Structures are given as C-alpha cells and as structure tokens.
Amino acid sequence: MKVVKGSKVYQVTLPVTPPSMENRFLIKNASSIKIYSPFCTLIISDETGENSINVADFRSVWWDKKNFYIYAIKKPLYPVKKYHFKYKFVIKPPQVSINEIQLPEVVFQTEKDVDVNKKVIIPYPQEIEFKKGHFLINGKTSIVILDEEYLSLANILKEEINSLFDLELKIQKTQIKDLKNMILLATLDFLPQDLLDDFHSEKLKPEGYYLLVNNDQIIIAGQDKRGIFYGIQTLLQLIEKDKDKITVPSVEIKDWPALRIRGMCITAPTEAKLNILKKYIKALAKYKANTVVLYYKPNHLFDYIKRKKALEDLKELSLFAKKYFIEVIPGLSAKLNTKLFENIVENKNVIQSFYCPSLSESYKVMFSLYQDLIDACHPKYFLIGHDEIKDLAKCPRCRDKEPYKLLLKDIIKIHNWLAKRGITTLMWGDMLLNRKDWPNDITAHSNAYGYPSNTHKALSFLPKDIVILDWQYKPRKNYPTFKYFKDKDFKVIGVSWYDGKNNYYLAQSAYKYGALGILGSDWGFSHTLSFGANSILCLEYAWSPGVPELEDLSYDPITTFAKQIKPPLLDYSSKKTFIPIDLSPYANESTIDEKFGDGKGWFDLGSLFDLRNLPIGEQKFAGINFYIASPENGQRNCIIFGKNTYQPLPEEIKGIKINKKVKALFFLHTMMSPLASVWHKTIGVYKINYADGTFVDVKLVENFNITDFRSSGIFRENPWTFNKGFEILYGAECGWEGISLCGEKINLQVCKWKNPFPEKIVKSIDMRAIGKKPVKIALLGISTLN
C-alpha cells in the first residue's frame, strides 16, 4: 500500500497476520493511498487537498478478526454550516501476482500446551490459588455425603465423571472420620468446626462455595445446595486425564456470583429437538446459569397439536432444568401473526401486529395462552413481551387514543391478572425509553422512527413490582438505562446478545447500577442450531464482571459452548483404527483453481478461494485419518458434484468402492452456494450400498452436517445477523481451517455415519445433489472405522 503525505510517498504492507492492538492504526492523515491486492489496484485521493484519509486494521480485535477500515476524518463540523467533500476512487487491474501473497501459518493449540495456572474455568472464580501437588481419582475414590438431601448432587458428580472418564465412583453416606481419597459434598452448616477453620469460617454469599483440593481429599462446601452444585461444576473443569491417570490440581477456591440472575433468553423449540434443548440447558448450568427464559410466539401455539406438544416439552424442560438448579421462565410475544389472529390485531396490513388493547377478545386469547404456559411449568415470573410495538393505536377503536394510555392500561391489566396468580410480570423496556433522551447506540423506541409517540410516559404510572428486561445489544462502555429504571424504583435485568464487548460492559453496568442480573439472548439456535447466535460470555461476566479482561480470554466462547452440546465425533476412551480411502480414481476436479470462470477447478472461483494451502498426503482431520492426493501438475484430487450451477458438474457420482464391513464411515467434505444459509435444507445425499442389494441414505443438510467452505457470515443468508461460528456445526466436526489467498477464513467438515448394520458388507457409495438450490458439493476424503 502506497501512501502520499504532502510531497512524500510511503509504503505500508498489510500483513495477512494482523498486528497487535496498539499497532492497529496503519495510516493517519494521508492525502492519497494506493492499495495493491489480487483483486485490483485501488487509488483513493482527497480532492480537496486535505490530509483526511486514515487506515486501521481491526483484525487484532478478537470479536472482529476480518475487517480493516479506510475512513476519512473531517473536524470540526458545526451545525447549519455547509461543507464540501470530494474523494476520487480509481480502480485499475491488479499488479500483485498470486506468488507474492504471504499465507499465515495456522497453529492449533493442544491441551498439553496449556499451563495449569492458566487453566480455563468458566466463569472464572472470585478467589483462586493453585498449590503444589494433585489429587488422584481412581476406582477406590468415594463421594461422601453427610445427609440424604445431598444424594442428588452426589449422583450428578458421579454421572459426569463416569460419562467423561468411564470411571464409576461409589457414594457413601457417613460421618466425617478419615477423608483420605474421598470427595466430600456438604453445606457449611454441616461441616465440623475443624474443617470450617480451614475455610476461615467466613460466611459466603448465596450460591457461593469453597473448593479445597489437596493430595488426600477434595472438599466442596457450599453456602447452600446451589453452591455445592456450582462447586461441582468448577471441579469438573479442573479434572485432567493424562494417559491412564485422572487428576485434579491442588487448589483453594472461594467463589460466589456477583449478580443474582444469570442465564439466557432463547426462542422456544421449533427446529431444535427436546433432547438438544436439554443439552443446551445442561451446558448453561455448567457455566453456573440459574435462569432460562423460553420465549414463545402466539402463532407457535395456535395449532392445537403443536400447542399440545409445545406445552409437554415446556413441562419436561422445566422439570429437567430444576435438577440443574435452573428456573425456567415462560414468555409470550405480544406480536401476533395477522392471518391467524386477524380478528384481534391492530394492523391487518402487516405480517405481524400487536393485538388490539381496546378489544376484550384480545385478552381472552392472550390470557388463554398465558394460562397454558403457566400450567405447564408453574413459574414465579412471566415475560409478557411488549418490545418493538409499531402498531399501537392503528385500528379504528384505538386510533384516537393516546398511545401511552393504551399501553399503560394494557400492561396494568396483564399485571393484575398475573398478580392474582402469584406471578411477577417481566417486560421488555424499549417502549419505555424516549428516543429523544438517549444516544443512538441505546435501544429506545418511544418516539423512534416508525414507532408510536410518547409511550415512555407510561413508565411513571406502572406498578413498581414489574421487572424491566432492558435489552441493549450494541457494544458501548456504559449502559445508563439500568440506572434510569432503578431511579424510577423498578427492578431491572440487563439483556445482551452475541457481541463480546456488549456482554463484557453490560455486566459491569448491571453490577455498578444494582441490576438483578443479566441474561444473554439467543434468537437463532432453536431455528438453526447455530452456536454463534449467543455468547456464554454473559455467564462469564455475570458471575464476575470484568474478569477476565476480554483480551485475556483463553478460550473461544463459541467453540467452548458448542463442545458441551454437540454429539462427540469419537468415543472418548476407545482406541480407533481408521483406514482412509484413496479417491484419486474417482476424482473429477482439483483443489487448485488457477483461473476464475473457466468451468474447472475448485468450485471455479479462481486462485483467490482455492485450497492450495490444504495439507496433502495422509493427514488427520478432527482425529480421523484421510488421504488427500497431490494436486500438482493438474492432477485431480477431489470429487465435486452439484445442481443448478453454471460450472459443468455431474449431479451424481456412482460406484466408490468400499467392499468391507465397517462400523462407521467418515466424510471430509464441504459445499459452496451463492445462496448459502443458516437454515437447514437438504442439498444432497450419500447412498450407502450393501452387498446384499439394500442401501441407506445419508442426508447432507446445510448448516447441520455440511456448510459453505467460506467461513465468513457475508456469504450467508442470516436474519439474526451474528457473524461468527458458521464453521461449527451440530452434526459435523470442523476438520480443517485455513486462510484463502484473499485472506478469508475457510473450512472443511468431517461428518460421521454410524452403520446400523455393521455385520453387512458395504459394497459402494453413490452420491447426488438434490433440491432446487444452486449448490456444489465437494468430497475430499472418506475414512472407514473397521
């Protein structure tokens, strides 16, 4: 990149590997810049003669990692005055050859690289001190309880250790005599004085715990049962396995939550099955969440059969969550599908609308749905929605009434109905904030464009026992709306989304202003099983606001959370033998693509997006052996098939020979589509042919067990706007990640098929693309588990 400052010309190189945070500002106050790239040569100049052009590399920031910015600064600017700006953009053919581009080395950290003193514990404890030594867990180790009421907690610990390490521990109910080789679970009020002295007899806050590990014993002492449970979750994260030894480092921990309410708001199950939502809730509990809001839409409950299933699921999820000390709160959106509820909506000319608050029939419908949800889980709280209400005072009955009076009367009516049933009202807070009073990066919808006027006036007249859910998704260092609601004598819970900075600073504001807590929000997982639609950082920072610093995080939030929910690709304890299949005899394309648009090569996208940095030969991807032939000298080394695409590809490939019995098959594959999406859609099928003439179809489902090889969100349809984690799928394991020549992150997935008939000989595999969607599917390797 050439830079002109006055009469001087400088050259700046933008490396593929981003610079440090402090060095992210590459160019300041230039009059002209010339950017050389494989795409083109771009010249930008300030035609007014000022030095206003700046360039900053923001890829060093972990929550971005893809953008650098070219921007102009003009200051000061004063209201009413007129200003003239003129910038010239010239685009010329590229002057950089492919061979000049430096590819970064992608290094993956293994568990052995992690220092015990930097071990990942989520959320990080308030006080922790590692000591010398360790406790060895073996077949003779017992879990000790002092009373039957702790048995359920002991069983949780027993089940987790058995699941993780294939080791079954015994549970003993006994008085404390000799704790050697034992794990003691107890509340502080049950511990004898000599053990209390070890903990300095300090009273813990509710949900707090002590964890003491030395060479002889482990003691988890909770302020209450929740405290014991959270101590168990910390212990499970500390356990290590090295070969045949299972150990816990010696440590002393004193820990408690800073905020009372910690959890997640999630859309009620639609695509996600009940067992997946149970895994989701269990994963939240692992990170010490105590609240889950299941948010329903009225149209999901309109059909009787769907409603019956939804209510059964809610009941089962609620009971399941209680086992893990999580309270499930039901919620119902106040926005209705206009076709399904046309007789009670405010505005019939939109897809969804607020119900008419002047119509008694509206409350018959809404209260009936409320009652069904309440009967299913008997909650203490109920979320009534009331966010983003654009259609208030639109129908003939409401048109002449003041919006805030309509809203006030409506909320009080619902509040009183719930209060009679002993339930506290929760509601979103955006309609109670005046757009004119807050900065643009604060969510406030009273008097906002397209919204009714002055709905914020209702706040002063609302019952003070209503709890406000103040959702603020934009990252900023302070969220003063928490203080605003508190000063009006309302309890408030902050609600964040997937952005790391948003979660980090929102938790600090919640703690600073005395909010009840924070909830993350996940409006995508139930529909897409996408792990990037939320952030477990809300749980990290709700427990201990501001610790650790964002820059000091030693884990990736998306990958870490997904690992708790996804089915494992491999059995933890078993030794496997994988035999790769050489696909060279069947290959029809190459992982190298020298020219865009010539109908050949890697998806015919040209060298900027091919896989020239993919390791070749026999390689391990996601722990599975695969063989990738060399693409040198134009050799074809992969299979690409597709449908409705300009590249001349077969829709079907037949006859890849296996000819043996297998327990499982593993596929190293990917796809490409101009219409890639986070929605689940079947795009192809692998047909597994047995020697006896029978077969089994393995569906290839986009965003489940296969995804576009370009990892960036800019290549996908995604109404939830989250921009990370697309390479992490529920039904496959990311086997390889790399960087393309144009700097984009790329991925390949490993998908497992478990053979339901392992006694049969698998003869061959056929594959075909299906559906109307333009799609190309690439198979790079097959491996068998014998």
From TrEMBL:
Its EC number is 3.2.1.52. Keywords: Glycosidase, Hydrolase. InterPro entries: Beta_hexosaminidase_sua/sub (IPR025705), GH (IPR017853), Hex-like_dom2 (IPR029018), HEX_bac_N (IPR015882). GO terms for biological process: carbohydrate metabolic process; glycosaminoglycan metabolic process. It catalyses: Hydrolysis of terminal non-reducing N-acetyl-D-hexosamine residues in N-acetyl-beta-D-hexosaminides. GO terms for cellular component: membrane. Pfam families: Glyco_hydro_20b. Residues 121-256 form the Beta-hexosaminidase bacterial type N-terminal domain. The keyword Transit peptide does not apply. One of its GO terms (molecular function) is beta-N-acetylhexosaminidase activity. This is beta-N-acetylhexosaminidase. It comes from Desulfofervidus auxilii. The lineage of its organism: Bacteria, Pseudomonadati, Thermodesulfobacteriota, Candidatus Desulfofervidia, Candidatus Desulfofervidales.
